[in-house]
Design a protein that fits this description.
Length: 185
């Protein structure tokens, strides 16, 4: 249920409130421009992994182009992010973060960016150790076909939370790369 609220996705820029001087219109325009100039990245192979007790699809090995792309996204859209409130910082359990992660949280609004970035597509909430083997077997079975093929990262999607705690909803989808103009008669 906790993973379902966010939808099946991979976070490149953590959720944020819009900065006072920005609007949804300016953010979407920036997404259009960024996406048109960016090139898709391919993850050669995903595997099922566990991060901090939850299951996720993760790259089998590092994908430097993906990490650079994620960093570019963080840099390009940080101007749209309102500064974190004290409550938002506390929600991230700052005492449990490593110094680099805490610095990232304060500067970029999320602990896991740049050198600490961990691409993942969340599949579950935290799982008790005694339940892990059963759930792992079910996930492996469900994703067998997907795990055999490369996975393109070929779009950015903007999600919104209509009210605190509500499921995230897709606001806009932005394909990466310049699209050829359609020929007309």
């Amino acid at each position: 249920a906790s993973a379902r609220r966010y939808g099946f996705h991979a976070t490149l820029k953590a959720p944020f409130r819009l900065a006072e001087n920005e609007t949804e219109v300016t953010l979407r325009a920036a997404l259009d421009s960024f996406a048109e100039a960016a090139q898709p990245v391919t993850i050669p192979r995903l595997i099922v992994g566990q991060i901090d007790g939850f299951f996720a699809l993760v790259p089998e090995s590092p994908v430097p182009a993906l990490n650079r792309f994620a960093g570019d996204v963080v840099l390009a859209f940080d101007r749209f992010r309102a500064p974190l409130t004290e409550a938002e910082i506390e929600r991230r359990s700052p005492d449990s973060l490593k110094p680099d992660e805490f610095r990232n949280l304060c500067q970029w609004g999320y602990p896991y960016v740049f050198e600490t970035f961990r691409f993942h597509m969340t599949l579950s909430g935290r799982v008790a150790s005694q339940e892990s083997p059963r759930l792992r077997a079910a996930i492996d079975s469900l994703f067998t076909e997907v795990l055999l093929r490369p996975v393109p990262v070929d779009a950015l999607t903007l999600f919104v939370e209509t009210e605190p705690g509500a499921p995230f909803m897709v606001l806009s989808h932005h394909a990466l790369g310049r699209r050829p103009a359609r020929k007309t008669a």
